[in-house]
Design goal:
The protein is an alpha/beta fold. It has three domains: about 210 residues, P-loop containing nucleotide triphosphate hydrolases (Rossmann fold), CATH 3.40.50; about 55 residues, no CATH class; about 230 residues, Nucleotidyltransferase, domain 5 (2-Layer Sandwich). The protein has 20 helices and 17 strands. β4 and β5 form a beta hairpin. It is elongated.
Length: about 500
């Protein structure tokens, strides 16, 4: 009876003190769903040291975590002078949980009168009990001399590898507590060897009866785009989720495989680590019309190392269609050997006029500069985005070709290759392709680059094209993404992609 009264008491307290903090039901009392009640009953009706809760995004994971925090800060689970902590990989992620809990406090008159919110340090304090909650992040300098009674590990699935310093520091600090509780709430990790996967697998093997695991994940062999498959990983699908938005995500992932890995992880809650092509052949072919009109143009220039492919792509958006022209260079010496090495017909493409060569065994930037200088005489080119690392070698040749320093500074835009710049550029390019709003003329080398291109993502969901893990040359797609982003930038009042020092620092990190 005691354990039953404990979970029922906690459910009652949540539904009578916690308010929906945001969204379409904001301001209404929280009504716990069946799957949320199941979690609470298992954790509080049986001896539990650790609860692992894993389902897909948009199932109110963070809101549930905030409820656990308030239960132990000022609710029926509160202890005098107790310390509660949440851990996250980044300051931004840590702030999300804190602000959600703080909103719940402010929306309820009783809680607002009992709990002090400290936004600057992301803390909640209950003076009557002396209990305090603090949000910690791995990228902040934190004092790890804690003695937590309750820990919420938020989005632990973002941890790569089987260990994490902040997780270990907090977990080992609970030894001074008589009955500590850890709550892990996250979508799944990418691989079996990551920390969250190790913890889930150990719990599923029932090695520790004090660990409760709640895993909602889609079957690996099920149709990933079927609504019943989606329901497996989303217990709130028929409750408060936006079903049409989720199905739109499924449809986009079906058509654009670059989204499938993140879709499987975030929507189906599967362990996924895959190199997916950025664009399918079907989508690429649907945009293969020849450009019929041409006007104001914007470019992307991916400058190669000495003997690699240099790519220049020019786009001209007219009447909602992005028209594309592409130019490529390789060293003339050893072209047949490189064709065999890359398993593509560079020599044939050169004979057909699709590929330019420069004398010697490395790309001579003098020829690229002369081409660009002449192009400015015949085309109305407003801006060209370029990869900064090899621009120092091209710039002197541009000046030699007759372009002034001021002209170069005005027309050439420094474009970072890291997540900060490339993620919005890929969103722009992807949107154009998905809506069949491109006319790329099926240039064979650009088509090859499109078939090879894969994306790499970070913990925040940002993406960039990944040359290391692609199946072959992708330089043309890098140049196309830059060109589309520069064109999009020109049509917006606010910047689409960051430049200057912020982008430079991010690229050094990435």
């Amino acid at each position: 009876m005691y354990f039953c009264r404990r979970s029922c008491r906690n459910i009652y307290w949540i539904e009578h003190h916690c308010i929906v903090p945001e969204g379409k039901l904001v301001g209404q009392p929280i009504q716990l769903r069946k799957f949320q009640r199941k979690v609470i009953r298992r954790i509080y009706d049986q001896p539990t040291r650790r609860g692992i809760i894993s389902f897909a995004r948009k199932n109110a994971k963070t809101a549930l975590a905030a409820m656990f925090i308030l239960l132990h800060l000022c609710g029926p689970e509160a202890r005098v002078n107790s310390g509660l902590y949440s851990s996250a990989l980044s300051r931004d992620q840590a702030a999300i949980l804190y602000h959600l809990a703080a909103k719940m406090v402010r929306l309820n008159e009783d809680l607002n009168g009992s709990v002090v919110t400290r936004d600057t340090v992301k803390e909640l304090h209950c003076p009557g009990l002396g209990s305090t909650y603090a949000a910690l992040s791995a990228d902040a300098s934190t004092n790890l001399g804690k003695s937590p009674s309750v820990i919420v590990h938020d989005e632990l699935g973002a941890v790569k590898g089987p260990m994490h310093q902040l997780y270990e520091a907090l977990e080992t600090a609970t030894a001074a507590q008589e009955d500590p509780l850890s709550i892990i709430i996250s979508t799944q990790s990418a691989t079996d060897s990551d920390l969250l996967s190790v913890l889930i697998d150990d719990a599923l093997d029932e090695h520790d009866p004090k660990t409760a695991v709640f895993l909602y994940t889609a079957d690996e062999d099920a149709d990933p785009f079927d609504v019943e498959t989606i329901r497996q990983a989303n217990p709130a699908f028929d409750e408060f989720m936006n079903q049409s938005e989720v199905m739109d995500m499924a449809d986009a992932a079906r058509r654009m495989p670059s989204r499938e890995a993140s879709y499987r992880n975030l929507i189906l809650n599967q362990r996924v680590e895959a190199s997916n092509p950025f664009v399918t052949k079907t989508v690429w072919d649907a945009n293969a019309a020849n450009p019929e009109t041409w006007g104001l143009a914007y470019g992307g220039l991916d400058l190669s190392e000495t003997n690699d492919l240099t790519a220049f792509v020019l786009v001209s958006p007219i009447n909602g269609v992005t028209n594309v022209r592409a130019k490529f260079w390789l060293p003339g010496d050893g072209l047949e050997e490189r064709s065999r090495q890359d398993r593509v017909p560079y020599d044939v493409w050169h004979e057909q006029g699709h590929l330019n060569t420069t004398p010697g065994r490395s790309v001579e930037y003098r020829y690229v500069a002369e081409y660009l200088a002449n192009l400015f005489q015949t085309e109305d080119i407003r801006k060209i985005g370029f990869d900064r690392w090899n621009m120092r070698h091209l710039r002197p040749w541009l000046i030699e070709a007759g372009l002034s320093e001021a002209f170069i500074d005005d027309r050439f835009v420094d474009f970072g290759q890291g997540y900060v710049s490339m993620s919005p550029a890929l969103r722009t390019l992807e949107s154009i392709l998905l809506n069949d709003k491109m006319a790329h003329g099926n240039h064979p080398i650009l088509t090859m680059c499109a078939a090879n291109a894969v994306v790499k993502g970070d913990e925040a969901g940002n993406r960039k094209l990944d040359k290391k893990n692609s199946r072959g040359r992708i330089d043309g797609m890098v140049a196309l993404a830059m060109a589309c982003a520069v064109a999009e930038e020109a049509s917006q009042s606010a910047p689409v992609f960051p430049v200057a020092i912020e982008s430079f620092v991010e690229d050094l990190r990435g």
